[in-house]
Design brief:
The complex is a heterodimer of chains A (300) and B (405). With 300 residues, chain A is mostly helical. In chain A, 67% of the residues lie in helices and 2% in strands. In chain B, the strands form 4 sheets. A 4-stranded antiparallel sheet of chain B has the order 4-5-6-7, with no helix packed on it. Chain B has a 4-stranded antiparallel sheet with strand order 10-11-12-13, with no helix packed on it. Chain B has 405 residues and is of the alpha+beta class. Chain B is flat. The chains are: A mainly alpha (300), B alpha+beta (405).
């Protein structure tokens, strides 16, 4: 396996320092993964996520990895039958359960789980070598959590693809294929209101915007947003309440700064300038191509 | 509670992007709280503008029982003094302190009301005072909570007209009912009142012109008459009934400003910082948590209502889960509406003594999402708004609902 990024000297020395310890911890050799190959895996992972770090940081990073699961996943990807047996014993049922929880319907869950098995096992080949999705597991989180995430990504990709196809079909049936843009028929918001709103939203912390987006755009409940962020539901409830008040205050102040009177600003905020209708065209132009998740190799 | 302005929601949506997605490893590490600070910040910035990644995170969450364990063990090796453990320790300590204060205050209030009752009983034992609570005053007690004229017949009629939730009083009203709203009787109350059949009799004498009643409304009117009648039976019964349920302002035992009279005022309502529904009978000095779990008697009536209107299955009236977080409450006199997470909407007609779960629906549409705002301009006209942008309106006190497009 070849790393996507060059390996710095500090990473190499940190791996060399910790190799014996991490090999023992991971049980890589018992799973059929030799020390040298495991060292290469560790270098690949560190190079992917560490940029310009020193020896100490590289050591600390390597010690945070889930090395046992990393060794198992990479041994499976390398074709070790014993590793694959261990993997199936531990994760086969969990994979199906996760697929069922995500798809919420038995046949769709089986379809999702089966296609994921094929990708994990490596039914496709590249240059004569079997390509397994497990080769992209990096040990940053648990293998079980990673399996849930890749299932969810696959599900979201399929759903987005289906939605686009259904939307286009519906438009064709209804004769709206060449419908004129709707924007001209709708009243536009005062530009001062929009710019004050953008400024207010821009001043929020990313986590606050995340909470608002998850709650108001995605329609998630307080409990779901709280679980996503690992906090209590009441924390999110308070945060949403606080953000609503803060945004009103900031938007009003912003409009006043832009030349409106307080009364005008408050009236502008009260009026629903346009409905939040589902605009299929703008939604389609905003969504990413189908292969965004599977093809993307960029990390943050 | 205020909502985020719709213009802000629209601009949030316009700012969504769909590129530069993090890989599954980073998303997993985010969910398991094992990212470094800088990575976490970058990922949160991306998640704030990427619906697909937010969906993946939400879908990939582990089963609920594992989340609590993961949150605690996300920093394994830090032991008892790690921040997550300490944080929950502080929360637990805070809850304990608040609960202790609440129990102490409740006990004090109980003792205060007992001493008030003792004073009142002693006062009522005096012949001169007994005169003041003679049949004419008892008649006044039968008056409607919202009415000023105390004649029993008129009072009961007015009770009916002012409380449409308790049944339909016209044929048109019956047709409108799309959602069965269970009523709030108190069949289990042990206050020595006559049986409901007697109450129905009294009622029909009092209001022979009432039309289009149904079994549910009869029981409700009976229960309301029961509530009012209980106070007219004897002073002792009135005194005994007082702690069981809040009485209405027009039920006067003593024209003077007695502590007991103050307690008959409709309570104030609020939502605590952790989303608990609370009320205060002493103008905000002390507050008590209010549970909305329906009683066994209510469930029977709720089932009867469901059967009558054939719209809801029994499990729709099941008690809420312990994770219910209230976000909005509106009260007019003794009529209270409270709503919160998961579309939970509750109504009480007796200042919170009894509650009914209400599920607004119109055709195939059912209210979904968290309830973020409840407004009632009067007993009949109200609006319930949700976090998903739905507005549900009623113009008949909650008997029927329509979703505003």
């Amino acid at each position: 396996m070849s790393p996507t990024k060059p390996i710095s000297a500090s990473v190499q020395s940190a791996v060399a320092d910790l190799l014996a310890e991490l090999c023992a911890k991971s049980g890589c050799e018992a799973l059929g993964l030799e020390r040298e190959n495991f060292a290469a895996v560790l270098c690949e992972v560190a190079a992917k996520y560490l940029a310009g770090t020193g020896h100490g940081d590289a050591r600390a990073f390597l010690l945070t990895l889930r090395v046992e699961e990393l060794a198992l996943a990479r041994a499976c990807a390398a074709g070790s039958n014993s590793a694959w047996e261990v993997f199936l014993n531990r994760y086969r049922e969990k994979l199906y359960q996760s697929a069922l929880r995500i798809a919420r319907e038995d046949s769709a869950a089986r379809d999702l789980a089966d296609s994921m098995y094929a990708e994990l096992y490596g039914t496709t080949t590249r240059g004569g070598e079997r390509v397994s999705k497990l080769a992209s597991f990096m040990g940053r989180g648990s293998l079980e959590g990673w399996l849930r995430t890749v299932l969810a990504q696959e599900f979201v990709n399929r759903y987005r693809r289906t939605k686009r196809l259904v939307s286009l079909d519906e438009e064709n049936e209804e004769g709206e294929q060449f419908a004129a843009p709707e924007t001209q028929a709708l009243p536009s918001a005062d530009s001062r209101l929009e710019s004050a709103t953008d400024a207010a939203l821009g001043s929020l912390a990313s986590e606050d915007r995340l909470v608002l987006a998850a709650y108001y755009l995605d329609g998630r409940t307080l409990a779901e947003v709280a679980r996503m962020l690992g906090v209590h539901e009441s924390t999110i409830s308070r945060k949403v309440d606080k953000l609503a008040k803060l945004l009103r205050k900031k938007i009003t102040a912003g409009m006043i700064q832009r030349g409106m009177s307080r009364r005008q600003a408050e009236e502008a905020l009260q009026v629903d300038v346009r409905d939040l209708r589902v605009n299929i065209r703008s939604t389609l132009t905003q969504e990413a191509p189908a292969g965004a998740f599977s093809d993307n190799k960029d990390a943050l | 509670m205020q909502d985020v302005p719709k213009i802000a929601i629209r601009r949030l949506r316009d700012a969504e992007i769909a590129e530069g997605h993090p890989d599954a490893n980073l998303l997993t590490a985010f969910a398991e709280r094992s990212l470094a600070e800088g990575e976490q910040a970058r990922l949160v910035t991306h998640l704030a503008t990427c619906r697909d990644c937010r969906d993946v995170i939400a879908l990939a969450l582990p089963p609920t029982e594992e989340v609590a364990l993961a949150a605690v063990s996300s920093r394994t090796g830090d032991g008892w003094f790690s921040w997550p453990v300490l944080r929950w320790g502080f929360v637990a300590a805070g809850v304990l302190v608040v609960a202790s204060v609440g129990v102490v205050q409740y006990k004090q209030a109980q003792e205060k009301s007992k001493s008030d009752l003792a004073i009142l009983t002693a006062r009522n034992a005096a012949p001169a005072e007994r005169q003041a609570i003679s049949p004419p005053a008892a008649e006044a007690r039968v008056a409607v909570p919202q009415a000023a004229a105390p004649k029993p017949a008129e009072g009961l009629k007015k009770l009916q007209s002012n409380r449409p939730l308790r049944g339909s009083f016209s044929a048109a009203g019956t047709a409108k009912m799309a959602t069965p709203t269970a009523t709030t009787p108190a069949p289990g109350r042990d206050d020595g009142v006559p049986s409901s059949s007697q109450m129905v009799e009294v009622q029909s004498e009092a209001a022979p012109a009432a039309t289009a009643r149904n079994a549910v409304s009869d029981q409700l009117i009976a229960s309301n008459a029961q509530t009012v009648q209980a106070q007219a039976v004897t002073q002792g019964d009135v005194v005994k009934a007082k702690p069981a349920a809040p009485l209405t302002p027009s039920v006067v035992l003593d024209p003077a400003n007695s502590p007991l009279q103050k307690e008959m005022q409709p309570p104030r309502w609020t939502i605590s910082s952790i989303g608990a529904l609370q009320r205060s009978f002493d103008e905000g000095n002390t507050w008590e948590n209010v549970s909305v779990n329906p009683t066994a008697g209510q469930s029977k009536l709720a089932t009867a209502a469901a059967e009558t209107y054939g719209k809801r299955e029994k499990n729709d009236w099941s008690p809420p889960s312990s994770s219910l977080v209230f976000r909005s409450v509106a009260a007019l006199g003794t009529e209270v509406w409270a709503g919160g997470s998961g579309g939970a909407l509750y109504h009480s007609g007796d200042s919170g003594a009894h509650w009914t779960r209400v599920v607004p629906s119109s055709g195939e549409a059912v209210l979904s999402g968290d309830i973020s705002r409840i407004e009632f301009s009067d007993l009949q006209h109200g609006t319930v708004a949700t976090s998903t942008g739905e507005d549900w309106l009623t113009s008949d006190g909650g008997l029927s609902w329509r979703r505003q497009p």
